Amino acid sequence: MAATDEDNYKEAIDASFKLFAPQGISSDLQQIINDSCAEVGSSSSDFWVMVAALKDFLCLSAYRKARLGAPGIRKCLRCKVQEFIANEGGGEVPLEGSIPDMTSSTEHYVNLQKIYQAKSEADYLVLEERVRNILKKIGRDPHSIPKATIKSFSKNARKLKVCRYRSIEDEYNNPSPAELHKYLTDEDYSIAVGFYILLRAVDRYAANFNHFPGQFDGGLDEDISRLKTTAVSLLNDLGCSGLTLTEDLINEMCRFGAAELHAVAAIIGGIASQEVIKLITKQFVPMTGTFAFNAIDHKSQLLNLC
């Protein structure tokens, strides 16, 4: 038993850093709760109805803290949360109910697991009740959202994230000059966004000259000059007039001559397949932004061009 206790203490020491992690809800979850879509109506999706219920679930902590604060703070917060006073969430995100593996006797581990599972079930029941109440309030069938869906939402509430994307057409037709300017003038991102702009410039080049730059031997210098002119024109169209791309990037784009290196293609294909799996299985968080892989520097980056 002494050896088991020592192992348990060692595990506790190794995991002690987790106590210093930021407390409270994540910034992603805070953004979701503050999203305008959380003000639900009859046409709101099931997800946002559950978010509204979660927001209700969390509000009691503000009220409880207000009771301990100054009179002015109490009055201000009480006005904001008075309709949520009756809730039972305690200001905490619903508990997942699972615990990690650890050195322990079976009896102690099972007893601890039951405590977490009981709290998770209690949180789920509170959240379910609030979902039903909100559905009734907005004129929908209170049981239109299945229990299994609410339970899954409750279990994963701590890790929620909303990913919003633009279509490629919208990205092309409605550029974001501010974001492009920020990346072009940032030393850490200038190469990644430079290749992004050059890939678009290459498409325009091919449409104008019926071949890709550097595709044929003997005309490399002319292709470099044409691509540079095309890139400058594209930058102007994107609202980034006055900014330029380095000669090295333009030369490299022409040098590779629209080749498709099997090693790079395999990496990109693998990354794309993983993203597809995330979307199909609805597990893990997909990338948000434009992914740029620079095989020359062995570096990948995400560009937020919304």
UniProtKB/TrEMBL annotation:
GO terms for molecular function: ubiquitin-like modifier activating enzyme activity. Keywords: Ubl conjugation pathway. Pathway: Protein modification; protein neddylation. The keyword Transcription regulation does not apply. Belongs to the ubiquitin-activating E1 family. ULA1 subfamily. It comes from Gossypium raimondii (Peruvian cotton). InterPro entries: Ubiquitin-activating_enz (IPR035985). The keyword Ribonucleoprotein does not apply. This is NEDD8-activating enzyme E1 regulatory subunit.
